[in-house]
Amino acid sequence: MIGLRVDITGRKLAEQALRASEERHQLALAAGRLVAWEWSVGDARIGWGERNEQIRGPLPPGVADYPDFRDMVHPVDRERYLATGRRAFEEIGPYHCEFRVVWLDASVHTIKSQGVVRRGTPGERDRIFGISQDITDRVAAGEALRESEARYRTLLETTTDAVLMVDDTDTIRYANAAVEALFGWMPAELVGGGLAVLQPERLREAHRDGVRRAFSTGERRQNWRAVEATGLHRDGREFPIELSFSLTQLGGRRYLVGFVRDIEIRKRAERELQELNATLESRVQERTAELSAVNRELESFSYTVAHDLRAPLRAIDGFSQVLEDELASRLAPEERGFLKRIRANTTVMAQMIDELLDFSRIGRTELSLRPVDLDGLARLVAGEISPDYANATVAFADLPVVDADPTLMRLVFVNLMDNALKFSARVAEPRVRVEATTAPGQIVVSITDNGVGFDPQYSSKLFGVFQRLHSREEFEGTGIGLATVARIVTRHGGRIWADSRPGEGASFHFTVPVRGGEGGPRAEAAVKAGP
To answer: In terms of domains, do 451 and 430 share one?
Structure first.
């Protein structure tokens, strides 16, 4: 028996090293999401390595195999893909190609391939050994980045604000087109130079200190908050600017990015507005002083006239009474009627004079504000005027305590409630309602009747002195009562108005400002005016 003993230790070690190398190779491909492939010249098919579904996509259910890879290349990219392969074989050079493939699920993916051509030994074909990677996400991210950069560049180049970017040496690294209109310098002239050229000399050192502080400490006190500053034009002219800036980081470096706006027109408009306001304020003060003087003169005149009319009026009334007493037996009935008419008119005139004096006095009297119980005040007034309106019913609801002048507020209720009772006296069941509601910062008091009412188109005449909507023969009165009410309400800081329709009654409303703790409501009650 003849035997042969061969030591294959070296071969085993070589095989182990080869397997280890192959494992490392596959790990590297997997880590980089790379797929190895082999393409022989003249062969339409490609030999794929592991994980090739990363390039060709998963096989749908029921599909046994992939089509020819050339047919999977996007039609737009197919000819370029094939031409790149032919050129690599012809030139025996490196292979680089980026193209799109259409997977069997119709999704489109961008593939990056690269490889090297290896000459075949006699009887073997030349082959390309390569790797491919799906870079669809990277391409999409790159396109999104380019679109974003294009949008921002368009924004920066089309905005009317000057945009400047400076580094930590106070050197301008970017300037948009708007700087030329604002400062007179072209962007190319500014980039690479210092920012000092855009500032008056007296402000440059303070600016440099601020820039150094921002970069050394990261302090961003402004952080896009606009501040006003002074800019320097190329022609030496100073002008006001509005500046907003913040620190930002680009490419590992920090920059100050600032937006600069010319506010010269705005500042000029502000100055003109201030001057106009000052002029208007001066004119208002002048007109107010003139109006106050005229009002004082009118009040003084009204008071003087009313006061001086009393003496001759008393004489007329006195002599009329003497004539009536002494000559009554010798006068004809018509003549006695004339005397009675004279005396009646002197009585009306005296009442008008008294009310005119009261009206004038109200404008001069200082308010004495104190808590006033409107509920008690309204009931008291209703009791005082009740003998003249025995059949009327007066209802009260939600009347609060307010801060007011009690004497003047009593006049308000006397006039308004007397008016309500007077103008509803001719209906079968006269009713008057006094109530209050709360509004922001005020109490609204309303006095409503079911009387004759009035045409709302004449409501503006209600609160004028001696203005009447009904004749004295229909309803007695002097025409001063509502004017007095309006003046009192106005002096308290309120307002007064009325709502009505002919034959449907009227509602008079006035407001009284409220302060803390005022305006407590009360329970509703009704009283009969009269015994």
So the answer is: yes
Q: What gap in Å lies between CA 157 and CA 373, rounded to an integer? A: 71
297 CA to centre of own chain:
47
Residue 123 and residue 72 share a domain: yes
Q: Residue 110: which residues within 8 A CB-CB, separation 6 or more?
A: 98, 99, 100, 134, 135, 136, 139
Q: How far apart are CA 160 and CA 177, in angstroms?
A: 9
Residues paired with residue 393 on neighbouring β-strands, in sequence order: 431, 528
Contacts of 214 (CB under 8 A, 6+ apart): 220, 247, 256
Same domain, 382 and 518: yes
pLDDT of residue 355: 67
Alpha-carbon distance of 513 to 495, in angstroms, equals 10
Give me the average pLDDT of each 10-residue run along the chain (531 residues): 58 56 51 78 77 88 88 93 87 89 93 86 78 88 77 70 86 89 90 89 84 72 68 90 81 83 82 88 86 72 68 76 76 79 76 69 79 92 79 85 92 90 83 91 92 76 64 54 87 90 88 70 44 36
Residue ranges of the alpha helices (H) in 365-474? Answer: 374-385, 406-423
The CATH number of residue 308's host domain is 1.10.287
Q: Is 141 exposed, middle or buried (0-12, 13-18, 19+ CB in 10 A)?
A: exposed
Report the alpha-carbon distance of residue 320 to residue 277 in Å, rounded: 62
pLDDT at 525: 45
3-state secondary structure of 466: coil
If residue 488 lies in a helix (H) or strand (E), which one and from where to where?
Answer: helix 481-491
- Residues spanned by the domain of 23: 15-141
Task: Look up the pTM and report it.
Answer: 0.42
Contact 261, 229 (CB under 8 A): no
- Determine contact, residues 435/482, Cβ cutoff 8 Å: no
| 3 state SS of 148 | helix
Same domain, 92 and 167: no
Going by C-alpha positions, the residue among 148, 171, 173 that lies closest to residue 163 is 173
Q: Give Cα 280 distance to the centre of its chain.
A: 28
Alpha helices (H) in 396-471, listed in sequence order: 406-423
**Nearest-5° Cα angle at 16, 13 to 17:** 85
The pLDDT of residue 178 is: 87
- pLDDT tens digits for range 333-374: 887 787 788 877 777 777 667 766 666 677 667 888 999 999
Both structure tokens of 350: 């005296």
239 within domain boundaries: yes
DSSP 287: H
Does residue 255 sit in the same domain as residue 284?
Answer: no
Backbone angles phi, psi at 345, to 5 degrees: -70, -35
Of the residues 302, 330, 360, the one at which a domain ends: 360
Determine, yes or no, domain membership for 7: no
Last residue of a domain, one of 343, 360, 377: 360
Q: What is the pLDDT of residue 98?
A: 92
Place of tokens 């990677």: 133
